[in-house]
Amino acid sequence: MLYWGEFLKKDKCHVCGTSRWKKTKDRGNVVSDQGTDTCKKGVPAKVMRYFPLIPRLKRIYMSSSTAEDMRWHDTERLGEDDKKILRHPSDGLAWKAFDERHSDFALDPRSVRLGLASDGFNPYRLMNTTYSTWPVMLIPYNLPPWLCMKPSSFILSTLIPGKSGPGNDIDVYLQPLVHELKLLWTGVEAFDAFAGEKFNLRAALLWTINDFPGYAMLSGLSTKGYNACPICLDSTPSDRFGSKICYCSYRKWLPADHPYRCQGDKSCEKFGTNEWGKAPSRPSGTDILRQQEKVKHVYGKSKAPPKKRQRGHDDDDDVQDESDFGTKRSIFFDLVYWEHNLLRHNLDVMHIEKNVSENILGTLLSMDKSRDSRNDREALEAWRIKSHLWLSTNPNGGECMPPASYSMSTEEKERFLNVLQKIKVPDGYGSNLSSCVNMKQRKLINLKSHDNHVLMQDILPVALRASKATKVIDLLARLSPFFKKLCSTTIDPDDLDGLQNEIILTL
């Protein structure tokens, strides 16, 4: 519960009854609106920092230079032919669809378009302490591309304290921000120093940017378990694969006449059939809102323990639960325009690239994050697929894992790591990769997000060719250009369909 607005003077949570103040032994009982409790009034148990948005948007237009830059998307963009190239969010379909639907908002180029980003971090990273602080940042997209993504242009809206992440209760902390966004949709009076006049300042939130767990927290959709796909929702084809969840029917994204659709594993009931299904269409905001309104959700934490589902392999009721597609109604649907936004949530490419890189390197080098473990081999045998990869017995009576097509030999690992240890890169391009190479254990350690970025896009194909690991070179040589093109500063929309078809076939 947030002690704000109508609950400003409350002393206890109206949901769970927890005191607002820290408890202490040296103070007497404090009489509250809901009874007495031993607590120290005046020392809050938890404090959220909120920095009002409206005054800071007004200050942007009080400077003539920044007020002029806020018109860039309307006055300084290139010609019609060049507008087809994606260089700025204003070139995208989501921005154009928003302007078309809300023409009164788009009529004034000073109307502010915002993006919201949030993720957790540990401010005590140099100490062995588990703590998660969540800043909520706003990005003003009116500015030109060389300014809007600079840290100096970011707007810190909310600082959510730990010790743990807010989880689905993040909506509790977002209430003041959503309240101001509602006011900004109708507009507030501001002064434009560039034009020398007063005007009605309006602002709208176009989308959020987050990693996949953050996607679930902000959207209210499920991103784990049997229904982990926010596109398929409760129609996600899934099944248990050992201790993990396996998502099947992935061949439906291939072209209708592709031969891979007819190449199922005949020895397995789950993958033995031909795949003629169509790829799911993206649900609209109206569809999601209609489904989320069925979910009962109350802001705050209830005293009642959450109901646990019994895990079972053959219980269909466990797989298809009506509420599995979502956990709550997202607070952003309180904004009248949010339901009709074409693109409401974006996934951070940095996190995806880091996860893909870690899993690839872990599998190739047989590190801790390998996707080829003993449990995975046992699951293959349980599903009766890939019999050549089942666990077997060696002549000494011990258990062994037959090498897969992607397994690197000891010599290949050493050649691969030797390239990373000796490679020289320009200043500022990346960190010293040689310090991350452990030749004795034949693995990589302490890789940062940017290290995975440069490895995935540029260095990995070169190092694999030097290792002569011919079985994986061709595949990963197609994966690296995908991330490189996706992260480029300019993208031709006509190339995106081809890029999507390539990555579907590669995966």
Please characterize this protein's 3D structure:
By secondary structure, this protein is of the alpha+beta class. It has five domains: 45 residues, no CATH class; 169 residues, no CATH class; 100 residues, no CATH class; 34 residues, no CATH class; 99 residues, no CATH class. Helix content is 32%, strand content 13%. The protein has a six-stranded mixed sheet with strand order 3-6-5-4-9-12.
Taking all Cα atoms into account, the compactness measure Rg is 27 Å
Q: Helix/strand-derived class?
A: alpha+beta
The total beta strand count reads 16
Low-confidence stretches: 27-38, 312-322
Tell me the overall shape.
Answer: globular
Beta-strand residue fraction: 5-15%
* Strand line-up of the largest beta sheet: 3-6-5-4-9-12
* Whole-number mean pLDDT: 83
- Helix content, binned percent: 25-40%
Helix count, DSSP H or I runs of 4 or more residues: 17
Q: How many domains make up the 3D coordinates? A: 5
Largest sheet: number of strands, sense, barrel closure: 6 strands, mixed
Please tag this protein with its features.
32% helix; alpha+beta; two-stranded antiparallel ribbon; 17 helices; 507 residues; 16 strands
